[in-house]
Design goal:
With about 120 residues, this protein is α/β, with parallel strands linked by helices. The chain has 5 helices and 5 strands. The relative contact order is 0.18.
């Protein structure tokens, strides 16, 4: 289960896992991201804000996660992982091999810093 919030002004999608991830969670994220991508060509960024990584509900949810990343990563400029979880803090290093977005880790309490990092380039335009 995730909470999804779209900052329309800055084109930033925030994802907050609140339990094991399901197939529906990635449909929900796509429904928020796709209209902005269609209008602006890309998202300035995605923020994954999580105290811990909850895992996936089942194998179908894992596959949905991979399909979401595969279908969207070329349209996302930056990804900020805002977490102190051991699993999520290494995510940027691993994911950098598979996605085109710029990745950066922030401590869980630094959500504002992550947002500022994502929108810095957008505000200069």
């Amino acid at each position: 289960m995730i909470e999804v919030e779209m900052n329309i002004k800055h084109s930033v999608l925030t994802i907050r896992p609140a339990g094991p991830l399901s197939q529906h969670d990635f449909v929900k994220a796509a429904l928020m991201a796709d209209p902005v991508i269609a209008k602006k060509g890309a998202l300035a960024g995605v923020i994954i804000h999580a105290k811990s990584f909850p895992g996936w509900q089942d194998f179908a949810a894992l596959l949905s996660h991979f399909r979401f990343v595969q279908g969207h990563h070329q349209h996302i400029k930056k990804v900020a992982v805002v977490s102190d979880s051991n699993v999520l803090t290494v995510f940027p290093e691993i994911a950098a091999h598979f996605i085109s977005a710029e990745l950066k880790h922030f401590h869980y309490d630094d959500y504002d810093g992550a947002m500022a990092w994502i929108i810095a380039d957008e505000e200069q335009r």
